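Pasting as-is:
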Amino acid sequence: MSKKYVLGTGLSSLIFCWYNKDYVAIGPSEGLGGKLSNDFMKNTIYLHESLEAIEFLNEVSIPFTKKTHTIKYCKGGVIQREIYQIDKLAFIKKKMNDKDFIVTDTTLSTHDYYQSVLQFDWQDLIKKLSEKVEIINETVIRINDKEIITDKTSYEYEEIVSTLPATTFWTLYYQTKHLDFRSVPVTFVLSDEVPNVLSGVPFDLMYFIDNKYRYTRINAQNDKYLYEFSGKLTEEEIKKCLPKSAEILKYYVDEMGIIISNVNNIPPPRIRFISRFSMWNHKIKLNDVIKESKFSYSFNNIWNTQASFSKNFMDFNKLNNDEYVEQQTRDYLLHVMGEIAEVLEHTNYKKHKQKKELDRSGVKEELIDIQKYLLNLFLLYNVDVREFVELFNSKSKIVEERWKKENEQKI
């Protein structure tokens, strides 16, 4: 039986298992599709047009249509296509339901005044995916460094992909991580009318910048309109915000509608996070899950690629010759030192020079050069991928224990 598991039975889990047949999903079958098991949520989730998304739908045999969603903004009762940076800051604070919120990311839903999406039957997608995915209908109650314990039995694992919300995962994992996972609930309301300011105005998505209107966004859906409110509002509170003659057709509160990213949410060894809520990163979209699920990477391949290139100037038959290995070691370390200097050239390390923009692209390229030379050093000492992992894990354990001991002495 497979020792590779995906935690959860939401859409992200189904997509990952679709592309990675050696993984088995674990989770209650009644939660199949995650948020999309609630039919109302299909109106709040988009699959943006991309090559990966189109290929995915075609592979699963899901018919779709392309649609352009036009985006407009309402500010002070005026409808406009673009807004200033100060307006973005104001809107983000409104969306976060916190006038003192410190904005570090001014990205809204898109950089442009439209977004291209793919429309299809979400339930059909969930059905077709689930038919091809192996699912263990059990509830996970604990995860340790060797086993997944469910309400019925336990499973030894080699690898885990978690799609569970970070708040849930760290409650289940035997070593609790004390991180600040903040979120803001969102109240969704489907109604039959728009406010007077939108009367006769064509739109797909309308953002409301200032606080004159309590809702943050309205999504036009044929002859219906989906209102979004930051926070948990009662139906009575909502009625006061809608046009007097408007009806509340549907009402739903998503407790984790908006998450405040915490990129310090690092998974444990042999565990990988995938999806917005497991990574606790608001930038992650369903398109990213598809892309990540399709992406197959192997450190063995990286190792072999470097070895194949290095044989042009390294004689692997001489690796038992100490003199040859020592000379090569000196040469590669000198190369590494040279590349380190080149990394610095892309930064503002010279205090007497006029400050320039950090060249992130240049830094990344030089770091890869350093990494390739370091790989050559491992090859020089006959270290393969398995030994590299063993050395890495062994040293990591020593460093972690040393760090804990040093910090315990400070307390």
